[in-house]
Amino acid sequence: MKAVSKFLSAASAAALSAALVVPGAIVVEMASISAAEAAVVSRVEVRGNSRIDADTIRNNISIKPGKAFSSADIDEAVKALFGMGLFSDVQITQSGSALVVTVSEYQVVNQVLFQGNKKLKDAALANAVQLKPRSSYSQAAVDADIESIKAAYGNIGRDDATVTSQIMDLGDNRVNVVFNINEGGRTKIAAINFVGNSAYSSRRLSDVINTKRSNFLSFVMRDDVFSEDKLKADEELLRRFYYNHGYADFQVVSAFGELDDATNQYTVTITVEEGARYKFGDVSVDSSIPEVDSKSLESLVETHTGDTYNARDVENTIIALTERVAGQGYAFAQVTPRGDRNFENHTISVIYTIDQGTKAYVERIEIRGNARTRDYVIRREFDVSEGDAFNQVLIQRAKKRLEALDYFERVEISTAPGSEPDQVILVVDVVEKSTGEFSIGAGYSTGGESPGPSVQGSVTERNFLGRGQFIRFSAGGGKHSRDYSFSFTEPYFLGRRIAAGFDISKSTRNFDNQYDSETTAGTVRFGLPITENISTQLAYNLSQEEYSYDEDCAAPCGLSVAIQDAITAGTWVKSSVSGNLVYNTIDDMKNPHFGIYANFGTEVAGLGGDAEFVKFTARTSIYQTLSEEMDIVGLVSAGAGHIQGFGDSSLRVFDHFRSNDRMIRGFDYNGIGPVDTATGDHLGGTTYFNASAEAQFPMPLVPESFGLRGAVFADAATLYGSKVSAPGLVVAGADMEWRASVGVGLMWASPFGPLRIDYAVPVVKEATDDVQEFNFGISTRF
Description:
Strand content: 35-45%
Distance between the termini: 48 Å
Largest sheet: 16 strands, antiparallel
CATH architecture of the largest domain: Beta Barrel
CATH class of the largest domain: Mainly Beta
Number of helices: 13
Strand order of the largest sheet: 16-17-18-19-20-21-22-23-24-25-26-29-30-32-33-35
CATH superfamily of the largest domain: membrane protein fhac: a member of the omp85/tpsb transporter family
Radius of gyration: 35 Å
Shape: globular
Number of domains: 6
Number of strands: 35
CATH topology of the largest domain: Porin
């Protein structure tokens, strides 16, 4: 609508300009026509046109030979011809019995060229400008395109970019338009200042927002680009944060960025008013629908008396109540939370009122702004469709789902009146963003199956061909390893909210220059959400493992007879099915501050192939903020696992659990548990338990934008049991013995992924254990 309004305004202004150019001709003729009230001409002559056919011009005006017309008709004809967007000037005069239409055609754009651009490619700039080959040239369009190019550079953090235009006349009314661009330097953010905050430190609030202060890694992270839209989104993030932590009166007083032209740096200032912190007072459910029993719905309420006020819990309660009542046959029921604030004791009593609601239906869902993402990818996130009852709660849930896809910079859902009083049109406006990623990095790992330096590269597309499909290809390796993998996921299999996909991988390893392994594997998986927080995944797995002695090693290389048996057994095929149940309430997977992540899994091997076992694993991590002001986060985690061969069959040494840094830090990979008494090789175990307690905190004197956090921790674990059988094998340490360690860590949210370095000292260990105090690798604890 805005575009149409601008277009009409331009046409009106152009028509007025035309009238002022030839005041004598038009005004005199209009005066004479007005005196006679009407005039008639025998023909319409068109002059000045070279590209536009005369009949096309005649057909676009309402004045016809032999038909009376007035000055108003002339005015409308001028506007109509300017409205075609093809003419820089239009004059209409009457000469005898002829109406003479004289036009000046716009020049035609032959090419649009860009010079001086490196940070933005020609294709990106061509999409930003209005002028296209074979379109009409006008200075107004050039000026508008210059501003569009500047805005495009502003979006990548180059607000001081300058753009000039050059017109090359090619003759025959054709021109080339050249935009000369000086990209300038990167516009940085020198500081982000918070004013009015006392409950939370400025450092903590900086973690909440997406705009970050510039640092030496900003050229990679690209999170220090200032924009008004991004700042408005940050305001909403701050509101959600405070509302979810009890501050129901919170508001952002102002938020703005001030650019210093001399340094080309922004200073962002956000002024807030926190207000008091509230707890829930009395909480109840009240239904005005006779058939709906309020008492039966109280179990769905997630807000409880005495708890800190949390807007997210209120919202979840509204959704749960709405879905339950709708399931009872009241599709138009409306759940409204009514809060009663007590300003003296800082409590909010909430009554969830259930009313019948106004009957309204969704006439249609109109989607705008999705140039790449297909309509159905957006529509399938709605639990309502055309013809269904309009439900505001389900609409807000769809908005959250669309935002969670991470395909869009912004999602806005509004309503418009339908064709009938009880019809509503849903208007979904989206702003798309890049969903493809190319990454390459290097690292060094001190643990795992392949310690040492390594490099890895990957190509990822989260919205393949605009269909919402996920594709990833990665390759990497180090001195003793090579890894290749390909993954594909269709999030809506057969049109239902079931994720289906497959993984293919190949990896090779060299173990201590003694033996090599090559594993080729494939997985077909299906994921199904059960609730908003619970999901499950089922998979079929097929892998083939081949082991051989290293070419520089004379077999048996001093290896345990258990390992020798596994190597000489030749190709080993495992065919299994697995299932995982995940419970996740983590607030932010990249920077968690509270919530629970629990994963329970099982794998059964024996559907063909050589492996025959059943394996159980479980891991739970609980995050809780210990100090809001100091941004200290506590983490408690625990895990367990057990593997059992079918019947009395023995297990291979390679099927056993092996210790790693996720089980306990301070010990080498596969450094604890049962050992071969003859060689000292650790053989892994059939059962493990582990637990960890950790406190995470921001690093003093280091800007939060660096993404550095420290940690202190204590770990405990036991790995025991053995089902390995080989001639002459004597296993020691198969009993349940606990190990423990304490240490400190440093976590870095780097551009290459979350990295972590730990220094841990074992305080309880066995004589056969292998110690490794330093550990460096990926920093995921889920």
